[in-house]
Amino acid sequence: MTDEHPVLTYRSLLIGEAIVDPEIRQLRLKDTATAAMVMRRSFQERLATLPVLHTAEEDAGFVRDHLFPTTEMWGALCPDLVGFVAFKRDWIEQFYILPEWQGRGIGKTLLEVPKSRFETLKLWTFQQNGPARRFYERNGFVEIELTSGEANEYNEPDVLYEWIREKSVV
Question: Which of 2, 41, 131, 163 has the most CB atoms around its CB within 10 Å?
Fold first, then answer.
């Protein structure tokens, strides 16, 4: 990874009665703790029926030792980190938005980063995560596989989604 960390400018968002211009930028290793907190809070609040399998320290280790070395991580800051997407070629590995920021356009804005880079993207989510599933479907993802969850650490039924860029007609 280089020292260059691009910042993208997207549309302004109406948050309450204020207009917020989220800063969308590539995350740095120093963002590990905050990204781990966003991941943990989002997961625990939106999937409260699932057991907590990892400590906060293990979450930070996962972000630092797995996500940073193997994916590109981009975050939305308003001004603090409120969500992030971790992706690599054709895959979204992790995607979390703090619950109080969901439904405000942050996720759609972050999703534009990997969608601008690749022709196809795939991702997994849990079948019980209705809000996430509706979000992905609104943003062009199509369900391609349902599983019983035997391959994930929660043994929770999950769903594989795929997005394919529409071919432009010339």
Answer: 163
- Maximum distance among all alpha carbons in the chain? 52
Give the number of other CB atoms < 10 A from CB of residue 140: 15
**Domain span including residue 95:** 7-164
Q: How many CA atoms lie within 13 A of 50 on its CB side?
A: 23
Position of tokens 């071919």?
167
In a domain, 169, yes or no: no
Do the domain assignments include residue 24? yes
Per-residue pLDDT of the chain (170 residues; tens, 9 = 90+): 444 444 444 444 444 544 467 899 999 999 999 999 999 999 999 999 999 999 999 999 999 999 999 999 999 999 999 999 999 999 999 999 999 999 999 999 999 999 999 999 999 999 999 999 999 999 999 999 999 999 999 999 999 999 999 887 76
**C-alpha torsion sign, points 65, 49, 143, 117:** negative
